[in-house]
Amino acid sequence: MRKIAIVNQKGGSGKTTTAVSLAASLAESSKRVLLIDLDPQGSSSLWFGIKDQGKLFFDVLTARAPLEQAVQPTKIKNVDLISSSPLLSGVEKALYQEKDAEHNLKHAFANMQSASWDYVLLDCPPTLGMLVLNAFVLAKEVLVPVETHVMALHGLLQLLKTIQLIKERLNPSLELGGILACRVDMRTKHSNEVLGQLRNRFQDKLYQTFIRENVKLAEAPLHVKPIIQYDPSCYGAADYRALAKELISQEVCVEPA
């Protein structure tokens, strides 16, 4: 089981688009996926047509309920979801005096009777707090979506320092799985230059796949469908299918959970 935290501390970087689109694309390749929506805004949950059903997840994170009670199927074959709700914004307050509270989600996984997923994708909020720390402690890999904009590079460098700090202090198994260039507009010089900088600086840590700018990706959540169902032939669907294949191709190199 591969556990991948999808993280960027900059809003609008494509985290939720990547979480939902990658989950559906992996499922299309017959992989069983659990998507965990850790963002109190619940964008991933809303994309699957699920609203305000995240109380059980709050109870999981505060050690009041088993994880399996929070898992629900989606309309997408092979994709299960742990949905979010605004209640998650209260996790910080609920856990501020609890020792090692950043391990609660990992403990909940360890206590599950069975877990048959191939991938666990964690859609994280943009702020570094208890929710993201729980994701970092559970995950083995971090996937960082980055807009091809020069300002996004500054935030990326800070995030990489944070990941290294978490690795040193909380989760020695945590690794940077890869950096995903998003919203790439090959028609503009700026987007091409930033993509070139990413390739030069990060080389093997940059996924070969990049996500092209595509209005269909913005339209898909309005229709409550992942991109591969909303418009299977568009650039967005092709790019996320390619990303899924790239991740699957890595499986021989990944140690089992």
Order of helices and strands: EHEHHEEHHEHEHEHHHH
The biggest beta sheet is recorded as:
7 strands, mixed
User: Spans of 5+ residues with little confidence (pLDDT < 50)?
Assistant: none
Helical/strand content category: alpha/beta
**What share of the residues lie within helices?**
40-55%
> What's the tally of helices?
11
Distance between the termini: 5 Å
How large, in whole angstroms, is the Cα Rg? 17 Å
Describe the structure.
With 257 residues, the protein is of the alpha/beta class. The chain has a domain at 145-206. Helices cover 41% and strands 14% of the residues. It has 11 helices and 7 strands. The protein has helices at residues 15-28, 43-47, 55-61, 91-95, 104-110, 130-138, 150-169, 189-202, 215-219, 227-230, 235-249, and strands spanning 2-6, 33-37, 71-73, 79-82, 119-123, 141-147, 175-182. Strands 3-4-2-5-1-6-7 form a 7-stranded mixed beta sheet, sandwiched between helices. Strand 6, helix 7 and strand 7 (175-182) form a beta-alpha-beta unit. Helix 1 (15-28) crosses helix 11 (235-249) and helix 5 crosses helix 6.
The gist of it:
By secondary structure, the chain is an alpha/beta fold. It is built from 11 helices and 7 strands.
